[in-house]
Write a sequence for this structure.
């Protein structure tokens, strides 16, 4: 019973020989969220008065996520988002304890990023809110929740898709695909609620700006959307465990008999021998 309890909590992921690894991962999550809030929210703060700035903001958030995933993805998986982390916990990709530590690191990193942004920008820009998420008067809080649900859904669906260990071809484009999912979310929802997609990002900006109205929307929406996407991918869309032959069959128009492929492979090896 004790062993099962420890396994459920994921204690083995954060103690013993994994202690050094988990600290590196937490630092990576902290730095990732720091960069997200500094550069992403920085784009919002500096161009908020420009009506055509939505594309610039969307690209800034998408590009910084691309950079973060590319640089620290091998260290922590580059969740950089409680919605992704909760989805990973629910689908048992990581343990509960590791998930909690990740979320704490993410929130602290976002807070640090927003604090640095506050300290390095002129006072006239602070009135723009430094990227704080605010529900637009044109929609209700419930509608904003629905928007954030969809944003969390598409982001986590993308993350699970490109991280599927049985989809070898998706690994190279993973960081770009995740960055584009973030860019897409901002293109569609910046005018509605500033586009959160990330509870930690919203938390850091809210602390510095002191704005907490409808803050629950930016936690509940992305996390619930992410959980639904994670479960859907794991139990419906996940690529089956297959060998090289089946992968060829999946991604070519012509399905070749497995025995024939083996025969041809064997003949090719023989022909290459001296």
């Amino acid at each position: 019973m004790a062993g099962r309890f420890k396994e459920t909590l994921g204690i083995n992921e954060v103690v013993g020989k994994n202690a050094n690894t988990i600290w590196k991962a937490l630092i990576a999550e902290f730095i990732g969220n720091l960069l997200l809030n500094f550069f992403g929210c920085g784009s919002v703060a500096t161009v908020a008065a420009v009506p055509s700035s939505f594309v610039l903001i969307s690209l800034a958030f998408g590009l910084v996520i691309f950079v973060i995933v590319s640089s620290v993805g091998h260290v922590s998986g580059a969740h950089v988002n409680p919605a992704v982390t909760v989805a990973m916990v629910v689908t048992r990709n990581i343990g509960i304890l590791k998930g909690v530590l990740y979320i704490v690191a993410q929130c602290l990193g976002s807070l640090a990023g927003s604090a640095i942004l506050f300290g390095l920008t002129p006072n006239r820009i602070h009135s723009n809110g430094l990227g704080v998420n605010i529900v637009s008067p044109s929609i209700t809080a419930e509608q904003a929740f629905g928007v954030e649900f969809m944003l969390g859904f598409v982001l986590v669906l993308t993350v699970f898709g490109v991280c599927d260990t049985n989809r070898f071809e998706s690994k190279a484009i993973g960081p770009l695909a995740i960055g584009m999912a973030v860019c897409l979310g901002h293109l569609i929802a910046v005018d509605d609620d500033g586009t959160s997609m990330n509870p930690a990002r919203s938390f850091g900006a809210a602390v510095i700006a002191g704005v907490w109205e409808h803050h629950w929307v930016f936690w509940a929406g992305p996390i619930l959307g992410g959980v639904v996407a994670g479960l859907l991918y794991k139990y419906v869309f996940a690529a089956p465990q297959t060998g090289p032959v089946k992968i060829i069959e999946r991604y070519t128009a012509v399905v070749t008999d497995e025995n024939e492929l083996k025969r041809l492979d064997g003949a090719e090896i023989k022909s290459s021998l001296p």
Confidence is low (pLDDT under 50) at residues 247-258. Residues 266 and 272 are 10 Å apart (CA to CA).
